[in-house]
């Protein structure tokens, strides 16, 4: 049975660690240049400060997808609570149909309940789900480039 829920970071991370490496390998362009080295302490600090929202999909208890959002008052709009997506992922076997769409839509509703005014979500050129975001009402905001400096 598929369920959507918010979870404490500590509960999520027990199952999330095994998916992170798979997620990273699939979507990161500079894989190998910069090693995956998640700052779990920073995530726990965000969670303790109530500045992290973790939304998950589980299939009979098994983690199959997630969105993680960092919440902050935007530096340019100090009264506007903003949620920045740090992770959005659905394991490949569960990408049939509308499950990813439903996860993001469900997450958006949870963030609305928390008083979030704006969402910021990035997509990778090789993993571009922008059309799905546009169906949810998103519009392009800015284009970000990266340079890996060794």
* CATH homolog superfamily: Gcn5-related N-acetyltransferase (GNAT)
Count of DSSP H/I helices: 4
Low-confidence stretches: none
- Widest sheet: strand order? 1-2-3-4-5
Number of domains: 1
Number of DSSP strand runs: 5
Order of helices and strands: EHHEEEHEH
Calculate the mean pLDDT score and round it: 90
**CATH overall fold name:** Aminopeptidase
Taking all Cα atoms into account, the compactness measure Rg is: 15 Å
The CATH class, by name, is: Alpha Beta
Q: Architecture, CATH level 2?
A: 3-Layer(aba) Sandwich
What report would you give on this structure?
This protein has about 150 residues and is an alpha+beta fold. The protein has one domain (about 1-135): Aminopeptidase (3-Layer(aba) Sandwich). Helix content is about 35%, strand content about 25%. It is built from four helices and five strands. It has helices at about 10-25, 40-50, 100-115, 130-135; strands at about 1-5, 50-60, 60-75, 80-90, 120. The chain has a five-stranded mixed β-sheet, sandwiched between helices. The mean pLDDT is about 90.
Quick summary:
The chain is an alpha+beta fold.
Task: Compile the SSE list and pairings.
Layout: E1 2-6, H1 9-27, H2 40-48, E2 52-59, E3 62-73, E4 81-90, H3 99-113, E5 118-120, H4 130-135
Features:
25% strand, single chain, 5 strands, alpha+beta, 150 residues, Aminopeptidase, 33% helix, globular
């Amino acid at each position: 049975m598929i369920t959507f829920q918010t979870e404490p970071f500590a509960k999520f991370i027990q199952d999330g660690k095994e998916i992170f490496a798979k997620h990273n390998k699939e979507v990161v362009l500079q894989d190998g240049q910069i090693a995956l080295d998640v700052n779990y302490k920073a995530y726990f600090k965000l969670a303790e400060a109530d500045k992290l929202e973790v939304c998950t999909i589980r299939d009979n208890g098994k983690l199959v997808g997630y969105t993680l959002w960092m919440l902050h008052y935007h530096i340019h709009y100090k009264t506007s609570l903003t949620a920045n997506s740090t992770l959005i992922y659905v394991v490949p076997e569960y990408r049939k149909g509308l499950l990813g769409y439903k996860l993001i839509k469900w997450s958006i509703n949870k963030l609305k309940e928390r008083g979030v005014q704006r969402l910021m979500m990035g997509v990778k050129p090789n993993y571009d789900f922008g059309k799905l975001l546009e169906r949810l009402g998103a519009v392009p905001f800015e284009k970000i480039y990266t340079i890996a400096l060794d």
